[in-house]
Amino acid sequence: MIEFPTPSPAVFNNRSEPEKLGSVIAGMEHRYSPDCKSFAGEIYESLELSFDPQSSRGRREACCFASLWMKVKIAGINASALEELRIRAIEEARKVARRKLRCGNVSAVWVHIFERLVAARCRGEAV
Fold first, then answer.
1. What is the pLDDT of residues 51-109, one digit of tens each?
2. Helix/strand/coil for 94
3. Could you tell me which of 85, 5, 81, 96 has the C-alpha nearest to residue 45?
4. pTM of the entire structure?
5. Are the C-beta atoms of 63 and 28 separated by less than 8 Å?
6. Domain regions of the chain by residue span
7. Which end of the chain has less Cβ packing within 10 Å, N or C?
8. Closest CA relative to residue 33, chosen from 70, 59, 1
């Protein structure tokens, strides 16, 4: 499971760019609700990403997934449709992972698919 640690105060003096980015990401992680974090963890695991979830890149990807789910919740989709969308998102993540894409960026492919699912849902179409 992905952990979103409580951020420590960020001190940017004498830090390299990756360290600064890591501090910014750590500062954002505490703002997501438990269900957004849970969704992010499920997608991360379903995509079978090759990097450590606690690395800077891993946390960035998890924050992206949590942010997407937060936007969907804000869109006003009803609870049953949200659950259908969550299940479908996880299924799509598993499909993307099984394809072993040559482009190497399975997260970007999944985000594109997920955004299309959300757009369809907002138009009233079944997902």
1. 888 888 888 899 899 999 999 998 888 889 899 999 999 999 999 998 876 666 889 99
2. helix
3. 96
4. 0.74
5. yes
6. 17-122
7. N
8. 70
